[in-house]
Specification:
- The chain is an all-alpha fold.
- It has two domains: 2-201, Clc chloride channel; 213-395, Clc chloride channel (Orthogonal Bundle).
- It contains 19 helices and four strands.
- Helix 16 (350-366) runs antiparallel to helix 17 (369-380).
- The longest helix is centred in the N-terminal third of the chain and has 44 residues, at 2-45.
- It starts with a helix and ends with a helix.
- The relative contact order is 0.12.
Length: 461
C-alpha cells in the first residue's frame, strides 16, 4: 500500500507540475507567434501599396536577410524547424534568445519581398526559443529544458496552422524517426492547446476545409485502390522535393561568389523566371492552396500541371540562397498541386486528392505520418482522414530514410532488406543491403540459373 501511495503522489505532483509549466509556456508561445503572424499579415497587406509588383524587391530582401542572420543570429539560418531539431539533439535544447527577433524579422522580409517560404518554421523556432528562454529564467535542469523546447515546437506549429493535436504530435514525432517520447505527450498537448487558444483569443483566424461537402466521399474498394496509387505517387513527389532542396542548396554553396552576391542574383533569377511561368510561385501561396482544396475550378484553371515542380524550384532557390522561412507551407502547396494533377487523371475528384497530397507529402518529406494523419482529421474531417491515413503511411515508407530535416535521428528502418546504423541522424546514416537479404537473393538467383541450365540441357540434340 505504501508503494502504491508513493507512486500516486509522485504522479500527481508530476502532472500538476507539467500542467502549470506547459500552460504558462503555451500562453507565452501563443502570444509571441501571434505577434509574428499579425506582423506577417500586415506586411502582406502593405504589398499593395507599392507602385510595382512586390516581388521586384526580392533581390534586396534576400540580401538583407542574409546580412541580418550573419550579423546577429547565425542560428536563425535556414528553415527554422531543422535548427530546433539540431538544438534538441546536440545542444540540450539550448536556443539563443537573439534567434527569436531575428528569425521573426528575417522571415517577414523574405515573404514580404516574395520569397517562397513558409511561416511554420519560424513559428516552431520562436516557440522553441521562448521555451528555452523560459527554462533559463527559472533555472530548469537540462531534461526539463529539452521537454519544454519539444513542447515549444508543437505549440508553435499549432499556433500557425490551428491544429493543436497535430502540432503537439508533430513536435514529438519530428525529432526521431520511429520513436515518440510519451513522457512529453501530456505537456505537448497542454502547450499546444494553450498556445492555440491564446492565438484565437488574440484574433488569429484559421481555415478548415469541408471536402465531403464539395464532393461526397463514400467507402468503396476501387477508391481505396486509387488512394494506394496516390500514396505511391506522393512518395515519389516527396523524394523529388527533398532531392531538389538538397541539391539546389549544395549547388548554390559551391558557387565561388560572395554570399550577398549569390542572394541578390538568386532574387534576379526568380524575377526573370516569373516572366515566363507567372508570379503565383512567390510568397506563401496560401490563395492557391485554398483554391485547390475548395475545388474552385474558375480559380485553378491557370495552374499548370507542373505547378508543384515550379514551387519546389522557387522554394529551393529562396532557402538555398539565404532566405528565411519555413518549409512546411511550400510542402502543402507542392502536395495539394501534385494531388490536383493526380486527381485529374483518376476520376476528377480534384479536391479530395489535393487534400491527400497536402498531408501525404508532409508525411513523406518530414517523416511525421501520425501528425499528418491527425492533421487530416483536424483540417478535412474523418471522411477524408480514413483514406488519408493509407496514402500518408505509403508515402512515408516510399520516401525512404530521407527528410527535409537532416538532423532527424533514425530509430527504425523502413524495410527488412536494408541495414541501417540506427541512432545516427539522417545526414550521417549509412544504408546497405541486409546480409540475410543478400543471401536470400543469391539463393534465388542460383535456383534460377540451375533451372536455366537444365532447360538448356534438354534442348540439346
Amino acid at each position: 500500500m505504501k508503494k502504491h501511495s508513493i507512486e500516486q503522489v509522485g504522479i500527481f505532483v508530476s502532472v500538476t507540475k507539467w500542467l502549470i509549466l506547459s500552460s504558462l509556456v503555451g500562453v507565452i508561445i501563443g502570444t509571441s507567434v501571434t505577434i509574428f503572424l499579425k506582423a506577417l499579415q500586415l506586411s502582406e497587406k502593405s504589398q499593395s501599396l507599392l507602385p510595382f509588383p512586390h516581388y521586384y524587391l526580392l533581390p534586396f530582401g534576400l540580401l538583407l536577410t542574409v546580412w541580418l542572420v550573419k550579423r546577429f543570429a547565425p542560428d536563425a539560418d535556414g528553415h527554422g524547424t531543422e535548427k530546433v531539431i539540431e538544438a534538441v539533439h546536440k545542444k540540450s535544447g539550448k536556443i539563443e534568445i537573439a534567434v527569436i527577433p531575428i528569425k521573426l524579422l528575417a522571415t517577414i522580409i523574405t515573404i514580404f519581398s516574395g520569397g517562397s517560404a513558409g511561416k511554420e518554421g519560424p513559428g516552431a523556432q520562436i516557440g522553441a526559443g521562448m521555451a528555452s528562454t523560459t527554462s533559463d529564467f527559472f533555472h530548469f535542469n537540462t531534461e526539463d529544458r529539452k521537454k519544454l523546447v519539444i513542447c515549444g515546437i508543437g505549440a508553435g506549429f499549432a499556433t500557425v496552422f490551428g491544429t493543436p493535436i497535430a502540432g503537439a504530435i508533430f513536435g514529438l514525432e519530428v525529432l526521431v524517426v520511429g520513436l515518440i517520447r510519451y513522457d512529453v505527450l501530456l505537456p505537448s498537448f497542454i502547450a499546444g492547446f494553450s498556445a492555440f487558444s491564446t492565438a484565437q483569443y488574440l484574433g488569429i483566424e484559421y481555415t478548415y476545409f469541408n471536402i465531403n461537402f464539395i464532393q461526397p466521399i463514400e467507402l468503396n474498394l476501387f477508391l481505396i485502390f486509387q488512394v494506394v496509387l496516390a500514396g505511391l505517387f506522393f512518395g515519389i513527389i516527396s523524394d523529388i522535393t527533398i532531392t531538389a532542396l538538397k541539391r539546389v542548396s549544395r549547388i548554390i554553396k559551391k558557387i565561388p561568389l560572395n554570399a550577398y552576391i549569390k542572394a541578390f542574383s538568386a532574387g534576379i533569377i526568380l524575377i526573370l523566371l516569373s516572366f515566363f511561368v507567372g508570379d503565383q510561385y512567390f510568397g506563401l501561396g496560401l490563395t492557391t492552396i485554398d483554391n485547390l482544396l475548395q475545388a474552385n475550378t474558375s480559380q485553378i484553371e491557370d495552374i499548370p500541371w507542373y505547378a508543384f515542380l515550379l514551387k519546389t524550384l522557387y522554394t529551393s532557390i529562396t532557402l538555398g540562397s539565404g532566405g528565411s522561412g519555413g518549409i512546411v507551407t511550400p510542402i502543402f502547396y507542392i502536395g495539394a498541386a501534385s494531388g490536383h494533377w493526380f486527381g485529374s487523371f483518376i476520376d476528377g475528384n480534384l479536391a479530395f486528392f489535393a487534400a491527400l497530397g497536402f498531408v501525404s507529402v508532409l508525411a513523406g518529406t518530414t517523416n511525421a505520418p501520425i501528425a499528418a494523419t491527425i492533421m487530416a482529421m483536424e483540417l478535412f474531417g474523418l471522411d477524408v482522414a480514413h483514406y488519408a491515413a493509407i496514402s500518408i503511411v505509403i508515402s512515408f515508407i516510399i520516401t525512404g530514410h530521407r527528410s527535409v530535416f537532416p538532423s532527424q535521428q533514425l530509430a527504425m528502418k523502413k524495410s527488412d532488406f536494408l541495414k541501417i546504423n540506427l541512432g545516427e541522424d539522417i545526414a550521417h546514416s549509412t544504408i546497405d543491403v541486409e546480409d540475410t537479404s543478400m543471401e536470400q537473393f543469391n539463393s534465388i538467383r542460383e535456383r534460377i540459373q540451375k533451372k536455366r541450365a537444365k532447360r538448356n540441357e534438354r534442348k540439346k540434340p
